[in-house]
Amino acid sequence: MPISLSEATHKLLSGEIQSWKSFGEIKAGQIHLSSPAARRLFHFLLSSDKAKVAAGSEELFSGLIAAWNNSSFDPALQQSATPLATGSDRWRLARVEATGFGGLNLVDGPLFVLAANRQNWCLEGQNGSGKTSIASAIIWALTGYRCRDQDGLVKDDGRRMPVFNDSGVQIGDWPPTVAYPPNALKLAGTAEAWVRLLFQDDHGSTAEAFRRLTAPPVGEPQFESRVDPALGTAPQLVETGLLMPTRLARIGFGEKSHSIYEAVKLLTGLDQLADIGEGAASFSHKAKRLLKYGSDKGIQGIETKLETALERAAEESRKAGFALTIAGKPEDKTYAQGLRELADSAATLAATHSRALQAEVAADINTANPEHRARIRSAVTAARGVLQQNVKGITLFEAWAALKAAHADSRISALSGILTTAQSQIGQAIAWDKRQGEDLRLRLKALAAQNFVAAGHEHEDADCPLCQSKLSLPHQRALAAELAALKAAADAAQRKLADACAAIEKEVRDAIPALLIPHFAALAAMQPRTSFEKAVRERFVEEAPFATVLTGMADFAAGTAAALTERMPGFNHADLEVPADVPATAVSVPC
Q1: What distance lies between CA 109 and its chain's CA centroid?
Q2: Percentage helix, strand, coil for the chain under 3-state DSSP, each rounded to 5
Q3: According to DSSP H, which parts of 439-548 are helical?
Q4: Where are the alpha helices (DSSP H) in 70-149?
Q5: Rounded distance, CA 265 to CA 267, Å?
Q6: Which residues neighbour 343 within 8 Å (Cβ) at sequence distance 6 or greater?
Q7: 72 bridge partner residues
Q8: Strand 170-174 and strand 17-20: pairing?
Q9: pTM to 2 decimals?
Q10: What residues have CB less than 8 Å from 376, skipping those under 6 apart?
Q11: What is the H or E stretch that residue 227 is in?
């Protein structure tokens, strides 16, 4: 049974087995593209330039790799949506319309119309009269290929090509598919052409094929195409009615004649499959350029990265308690499948952990989102840094550490006596301050008392320490008695309360270990239970990354802090009531 190009490609793209019988020196055989990746490669080669495919051109390498990696596409699904027709309905061409198509139209000229009326036509005319252009327009509308006399069918990419004048000077560019404009000025404009085909079957039903090319002066050309699916189920229409006649020009006669085998391949288009086979051999042969292309693109580096990634995966799996066994070598056919199965198994385990993780992070975090997972990793790294600091930097714990270290200082044991003395001194200073307020000359008297010398005998008068005269009068003798009484406490009597309090405070602070000085105010007002819980919450609950991402850890820290707080003993500061008549200066002294 004969094989047509459309039948062969449909079978191969569908994943079916295409077999053939022996013919002459050609042995019987079969081809089966069993994997989607193989079908994608075949689909790409079918749509590529045939000459480049047959030559195994390096220009195809990037497309081959892209097709292989496009795992979302399987040509078999596309083929199942458009099965080959098995009925006997005949679609025949009824009408051709074209605008701007080279060989049929003039730029800005009238619409080209050919009323074929479902009849068989034999086109006859001189060279350049448009016979090939009509066939090319029909093929182009249906397939996107153009017909060129000696080259056969070529894929139309719509790109603008250089245009030269009679002197060989380039005057612009223009896509060959579109009719050329009458002058060079119009070459700078947008080129546009379209073809519409109307088909009709034996029952009067109609189907349309339409294709438009728009090629702007700058940028990529744009195609618009609409081909009724009914026409795609009648490959014989295209194969025998259009494609075969256009291939006749490629079959040589006389000195250039082909063998019958080669001629049949050319006539049926099966030479395209032969070109793909020849190109595939070039791609895969070790002496060809594909392996060099891989080497130039850094395949050795990729292999190294793969090995490193697998080693890291094995290390991480051990940490996670996941058995990761990578069997075989990269060149083994089952190696890739084995890696995929391992990846699936790891993904299942990861999903389990992911569900557990989801319960430990903020509600707005989605563990299935790669960006959110990156946030979690960043948060874990930050949290690890916080936890490594432990309580370092928390003022409360630093104060407690200083208090613990100071407990062993001998000055702490002496501090109680110093405070008792300080309280007595404060009382005396307040009393002197009161007397100073009552007697504005008291400080002067105290200053004079420092140099006062009492009389040696009761019948003698003392000398005034200021004027050196005798204190003989009654009020002078009273002053002498007062100076004598002040002499013992002259220093305390003449000092201001602020100066006295400052001196007392210095004595107290000098007795406090240096470690406690920076934390003195905090310790003086601290309530251990509430301060502890507040400090823990500030560091491990209310700050990022715990409050923003790792909310499970924040909840754990909050619960632990609350439990520890309940176990801590209460502490009540001594509530000392200060009499209302005590000056404010004395109230602030830390004793």
Answers
A1: 54
A2: 55, 10, 35
A3: 442-449, 474-487, 490-494, 497-511, 520-525, 528-540
A4: 75-81, 131-143
A5: 6
A6: none
A7: none
A8: unpaired
A9: 0.39
A10: 357, 361, 365, 367, 549, 550
A11: strand 222-227
Token pair for 109: 């000229």
- Taking only Cα atoms into account, the Rg of the chain, rounded to an integer number of angstroms, comes to 52
Kind of pairing between the strands at 145-148 and 222-227: unpaired
Dihedral in degrees, nearest 10, Cα atoms 444, 448, 449, 453: -160
Whole-angstrom distance, CA of residue 506 vs CA of residue 500: 10
Token duo for residue 45:
């080669």
pLDDT tens sequence across 296-343: 777 788 888 888 888 888 787 777 677 777 777 777 777 878 888 888
d(CA 254, CA 570): 116
SS3 261: helix
Residue 109 to residue 348: CA distance in whole angstroms: 66
Task: Tell me the domains of the chain and their CATH numbers.
Answer: 1-85+253-297 (no CATH), 89-232 (3.40.50), 305-358 (no CATH), 439-511 (no CATH)
The pLDDT tens digits for 91-121 are 888 999 999 999 888 888 899 999 989 888 8
**Contact 561/409 with Cβ under 8 angstroms?**
no
Burial of 510 (0-12, 13-18, 19+ CB in 10 A): exposed
Quickly tell me which residue has 């014989």 as its tokens: 236
In the block, residue with structure tokens 């400080």: 443
CB 542, CB 441: distance < 8 Å:
no
**Residue 408 backbone dihedrals phi, psi, to 5 degrees:** -90, -5
- Name the residue type at position 144: G
Residue 546: phi and psi, rounded to 5, are -70, -45
